[in-house]
Fold:
Amino acid sequence: IAHRVQVSGKAVQNQELAVTTVAGLRIASVQVNEGQQVEQGYGNMSILPDVRQDLSDIQIVMEWEPSEESRSAAVYKSQFAEDKAYLEKVKTGLARLENLTFSRAARREDENLGYTGTDAEGRKFQMIFFLRTGEWNYTTFSETAAQLKEETAREERERYENWMNSVGLFPEGAAFSIQNGDTLRWDASAPQDISVGKEDFQKGSILIQLHESGAPVNFFYQVTWNRYVATEELISQTQALEQVQKGNFEQYVPFQAGDMLHITNCELTYVYDTKGFYQPVYEFSGYLNQRENLWTCRIPALPQ
Structure:
């Protein structure tokens, strides 16, 4: 099966190249200026079910008309997905900044890697890295955080921004605010429509809460650094709807006989795959039986 993509970057500028499916794995073949071949395979999508939904005893009611038009959309990849050097840089840098002592053992659960240890004042902490996206969380499990005085907030903001800049973690143009009087917060906004873009971008939030002593209670780094990879042709909304009608989507609560599924809309959004690629997906929305019972499902937009 052949698809068409457009790729760009430092070595490649807007070249159209073929993508083929080999043994079920989608491979993008990128021709760089030096004549080298760079192959990039996308990962699996967690939104695909192990077993299809049984729709034999339900009725699907269409309150929305799908489009048969074909379109293309950008694909991105988390810059820090499965990046062990990045993980170690963050872990080591935070330990120096806050005088943390990490235990030697790390624990991996699915796509997350967890560490434990003690802070400078002897409190136990846990640090979790989300390997698919490059996000991470630090917590001491305390239920309370200190209220921030204006001077303290200003000093701590400067200290953390300096550290994040020094290790390449501070998102460009992030907006700062103080939330609930006890949380330092930075927000990075993605471009309005990333599906038509070809630029790298960051998105997400950083939240820090402190003890009275100034040691961190929580440090939630929920920012993803997304690198543009390619522009690919997508399946149409009609083709995606066919997958919904076949029950090829993830749903935790099974349908019951006599259910009426009303589909009211479909939008293009994005989901990280198992290799950290930020793939376009179609998100269908509607309701089950009654309007207050909201329903959504997601279908991969790239040909499978």
